[in-house]
Specification:
The structure is a homodimer.
Chain A lengths: L15 H20 L3 E2 L5 E3 L1 H4 L4 H5 L3 E4 L5 E4 L4 H10 L8 E10 L11 E10 L4 H18 L6 E7 H10 L7 H9 L6 H10 L4 H10 L10 H12 L6 E3 L10 E10 L6 E8 L2 H4 L7 E7 H11 L12 E3 L7 H13 L4 E3 L6 H10 L4 E4 L2 H5 L2 E6 L5 E5 L3 H8 L5
Parallel strand pairs in A: 1-5, 7-8, 12-13, 12-14
Antiparallel strand pairs in A: 2-4, 3-4, 5-6, 6-11, 7-9, 9-10, 10-11, 14-15, 15-16
Helix pairs in contact in A: 1-5, 5-10
Chain lengths: 425, 425
C-alpha cells in the first residue's frame, strides 16, 4: 500500500463534523449581515501584489503574502486580506454604485505565518464595510453588527468585549504630550505593542523610537485613562448610539486599542475574549483614503474583518457551539432485499419532497447493520419496507432515539415521521 | 489621480448583483445536496502537486494547474479539482468513517486555461460523491441528485439532458470489435473527441492511434447505437431506478459520452444544454480505485462535479434566473435630522428584530434624496420619523413600489410593514 499523500502545513481538512461548525458560524454571519441590510459581494482570491503595496501594513505584504509568478503574468498574490480588493472594486464603479454602500463577504485568505493554535496559513475571513459616509452613526452601526454577531453565537458580554478607541483622540493626546507629528505613527505602533511585550521591553522600545522619559510616562498614563473618551465628541455620540442598539454591555472604551494596519484614520476597535487566553476575535475601524489609494476618489468608510480560526477556538472554549448542528440526515430508508429497492427509493423520494433530509441504504443488508449505520450518522428515524409490509400496504417506522417502532398504513408514513421529527429544520 | 490597479486575467469581481446569482445557485445546491442526506465537507485550496499526479488526467496536472513553490516547502498547487482531496481525506480516516459516505462541497478552484466565454481561471465547483458501495442504486441516486438540481433551477428537460453511458459496456463493445486491451484507453479518448473534431479529423485521429479502417467503421456504428444500453444489466437497472425518481425525462442513454478523466471505471454521465451552444454543464461517473491510488484501501464510489461559469451562462440564456433575488435590503429607515437619529435607529432595530432586512440612512438628508437611494437599492418600504410624527407618537410608512404613504400610530409600525411586505423572505 502506498503512503497516503500529505496535506500542506497550515491548511485544514474540513470533515463533515468540522464543516458543520464552519457552516453554523457562516450562517449566523450571513443572517446578521443581511438583517442589517448589507449585500454580499466577493472578489478574486488572486490579485496582483501591487494592490496590497498601496496600503496594507508592510509586514502583511512583505513577509506574509503568498506570492508567485504564473506564465506570462506579473507577480500574483493569494489574497491576505479583502479591504484592498473592496477599494479596487469600488474605485472601478465609483460613479455607478449608490452610496453609502453596505457590503459583506466571506471567503478564504492566505498568510504565510507559522502555524500554531489559533493560526493557520489558509483561513476564512468575514469582511463587512459601510462606505461613503463619515457619520458616527455608521461607526456605531458597524460595531453593533459585530456585537450582534457575538451575541447571536451565544457569547455573553462577560465572555467577550469590543474595545473601542479613536485614532484622532489619541493623536490629540499625543499632541498634548508634545510628540512630534512625524513620530506619531511610530507611537501608534508602540501602543499596539503594549500587551505584546513585557513592561521593560516596552519602555525600551518606546525610548528607542525617540520618545523622552517624560513622554513615555505620559503615554503610560494615557493608555490607562479610562475616561479619556469623554474628550472626544465622536466617542460620546458613538456610545450614546450603541445604547440604542441595546449593546452597551458588549462595547467599552479602551485607549490601548490602536490596530496595526496603517490605513485607519478614526475610530478603531477590537473584540477580545475576556479571561481565558484573551484572544483578539475581530478588528476594524474607520478609513478615509483607502479608495483613493488604489486610484479612485476619496471615499470614507468603516468596516471590520474576523477570521474563523480564533473565533472557533473561543466558541469552543466558551461551550456555546450547539451539540447537534443542522444539515445531517434525519431519516434512513432501509433496504430489505434487492427486490424491494424500488419501493424504498419511492418512500425516500416522498419523505424528501416533504422537506426532510433523507438517505437510502444503497444495498440490501441485515436491518441491524443498517440501524447501526444510522446511529453512526446520528439519524433519528428509520423506515422499513420489507416484503411483509409491502404485501399488506404497510410500513414500519422506527424512532432510533427511543427505539420505539410502529407499523402503520403506507399512506400514514409522512404523518408518522412528523410525529417522530416534530420540529422541521 | 493614480491609475486603478488591474484585476488578474481570468478572475471575476462579484459585485452584489452578480453575487446574488451565485448565492441563489449555491443555495439550491445546498438544499438539494442536504435533502438527499449528503453532508458538507471541504478540503484545503492548497495541496501538494503529488496528490494530482496519481490519477487526474495528464492535461489537468501538467498544463492547467497553478503550481508554485513556497519558502521551505515542496511544490504547491491551487486545487484544480476536488476528487483527489476527497480520496486523501477518506484514505486518512478509512477505518473511522461510516460507509457508505455521502459528501458534498462547494468552493473555489483554479485552472490555467485561456479565459473565454464560459471559461475562467478561477471558478467555483460543486462536488458530490457517494463512496463505499458498488450498487447501481448509488449511480442512480447521484444522477437523480444532478437531475433534481437542474429541475429546481427551473431548467426543463427540453433545455437540458443528462447523457449516460457505461465504460464497462463500451469496453465489451470494443472487445467485440477486436480492439486490443492496451488500445482501449486511447479509443476512449477518440470517442471523447467525437464532437470536438470534424468527421475527417476524427477519422484521421482514430486511424493514427492504431485502429483499422474496419474498426473505425465499427466504432462509428457503436457511438450511434441508441439501444446499446439494453446489453448492459447495470444500465437497464439504472434506467428503471431513474423512473422511480420521476426524472426519466431528464436522463437518457448516449454512447458518445465517455469523459476525459482517467479514473472512471463504470457509469459515466454529462449534462448538456440542448440547442443553443449545447455546453456541458456537469459530468461525473463511477470510480473504483481512487482512494487506493492515494494510499488507502480500494473503495468504490460515484460522483460528479459542476462548475459555476457554464451553469450561469446556461441559466441566463434559458431565462430562469429570478429577477428579484433575496437578501437585498427590504426597508429603509430615513433620517430626518441630526436630532432624530436615535429614534430612527430604534425603529430600525425593532423592524430588524422582526426578521426584516433593514438599512438606516446614516446621515440626515432631503427625504427625496433618501427615497431615490432606496429606489436604487430596490428597497420596497421607507419609514419616516420626522419631528412632527415624533411629537404625536406617529410614524409614516411609504410603499416605494406603489408610492402609497400612510401615517399611523408608532405602535402599529410592524403591522403596517407586514401589510406592505406580506411575504417574509
Amino acid at each position: 500500500m502506498a503512503e497516503i499523500v500529505r496535506s500542506v502545513k497550515g491548511t485544514r481538512d474540513f470533515y463533515p463534523d468540522v464543516m458543520a461548525v464552519r457552516r453554523w458560524m457562516f450562517d449566523i454571519i450571513r443572517d446578521v449581515s443581511t438583517r442589517f441590510g448589507y449585500q454580499e459581494f466577493d472578489g478574486p482570491c488572486l490579485e496582483f501584489i501591487d494592490l496590497y503595496a498601496a496600503k496594507s501594513g508592510e509586514e502583511l505584504v512583505k513577509e506574509q503574502a503568498f506570492v508567485f509568478s504564473s506564465p506570462g503574468d506579473d507577480m500574483l498574490t493569494l489574497r491576505p486580506e479583502l479591504t484592498p480588493t473592496l477599494a479596487r472594486m469600488v474605485a472601478q464603479r465609483q460613479y455607478d454604485i449608490p452610496l453609502p454602500l453596505r457590503w459583506w463577504s466571506i471567503g478564504p485568505f492566505w498568510r504565510y505565518e507559522n502555524p500554531q493554535r489559533g493560526r493557520t496559513r489558509e483561513f476564512y475571513q468575514w469582511n463587512i464595510d459601510l462606505v461613503g459616509t463619515e457619520a458616527v452613526a455608521a461607526d456605531a452601526e458597524i460595531v453593533a453588527v459585530a456585537a450582534t454577531f457575538l451575541k447571536e453565537t451565544g457569547l455573553s458580554s462577560e465572555q467577550v468585549q469590543i474595545y473601542v478607541n479613536n485614532r484622532r483622540l489619541m493623536d490629540e493626546a499625543l499632541s498634548s504630550l508634545e510628540v512630534a507629528k512625524e513620530l506619531r505613527p511610530a507611537v501608534f505602533k508602540v501602543i499596539d505593542k503594549l500587551d505584546k511585550l513585557s513592561e521593560k521591553e516596552w519602555r525600551a522600545y518606546a525610548l528607542e523610537i525617540g520618545l523622552s522619559e517624560e513622554q513615555v510616562g505620559g503615554l503610560q498614563t494615557l493608555v490607562n485613562a479610562q475616561d479619556l473618551w469623554l474628550k472626544s465628541d465622536e466617542l460620546v455620540e458613538f456610545f450614546e448610539l450603541i445604547k440604542i442598539f441595546g449593546l452597551e454591555d458588549y462595547v467599552s472604551f479602551n485607549p490601548k486599542v490602536i490596530r496595526g494596519l496603517d490605513y485607519y484614520t478614526g475610530i478603531v476597535f477590537e473584540a477580545f475574549e475576556l479571561g481565558g487566553e484573551s484572544r483578539a476575535i475581530l478588528g476594524g475601524g474607520r478609513y478615509d483614503n483607502l479608495v483613493a489609494d488604489v486610484g479612485g476618489n476619496r471615499l470614507p468608510g468603516v468596516g471590520f474583518a474576523m477570521g474563523d480560526v480564533v473565533l472557533e477556538l473561543v466558541l469552543q472554549d466558551a461551550g456555546v457551539i450547539p451539540e447537534k448542528l443542522g444539515h445531517t440526515p434525519q431519516v434512513l430508508v432501509t433496504v430489505f432485499d434487492e427486490a424491494t429497492i424500488p419501493e424504498s427509493l419511492k418512500a425516500a423520494e416522498e419523505i424528501r419532497n416533504a422537506g426532510y433530509r433523507v438517505v437510502v441504504h444503497p444495498e440490501a443488508d441485515k436491518l441491524g447493520k443498517q440501524f447501526k449505520y444510522a446511529d453512526k450518522l446520528d439519524i433519528s428515524v428509520a423506515v422499513i419496507l420489507g416484503p411483509d409490509e409491502l404485501k399488506e400496504n404497510l410500513v414500519a417506522v422506527k424512532n432510533l432515539k427511543t427505539r420505539d417502532q410502529v407499523t402503520i398504513g403506507r399512506g400514514e408514513l409522512l404523518s408518522q415521521i412528523e410525529k417522530f421529527l416534530p420540529s422541521l429544520p
